[in-house]
Amino acid sequence: MDSSAACFDTYQCNYEGFTCKSHLTDCASNYDSLQNEYNALVDKHNELIRDFNSIRDASLKMDETLRDMQDCVYQARTAEDARACAE
Fold it and tell me: Going by fewer Cβ within 10 Å, which terminus of the chain is more open, N or C?
């Protein structure tokens, strides 16, 4: 066995019962990098969801305002009534 190998239970790693520490260290480092990348993507995803919800809410409010103004203008009997809809 290599002096840089660490023993594990039988069949734990490559069916030989050991793995090289350097390989294990590289694997752990790659795992940590991938986990950090994943966490950053989750954070970005959550930020995009918050942005989307904020924009959607603003859009719904503007749509409601537009409908209210359209109804007001439609029901206006005079030009003065129609101008008052913008207030």
Answer: C
Coil, strand or helix at 7 = strand
What Å distances lie between residue 61 and 12, 34, 54, 65, 75, CA to CA? 58, 40, 11, 6, 21
**Secondary structure of residue 19 in the 3-state scheme:** strand
d(CA 6, CA 20): 6
* DSSP-based three-state secondary structure for 44: helix
- pTM reported for the whole predicted model: 0.57
Cβ burial 61-73 (10 Å sphere, 16+ → b, else e):
eeeeeeeeeeeee
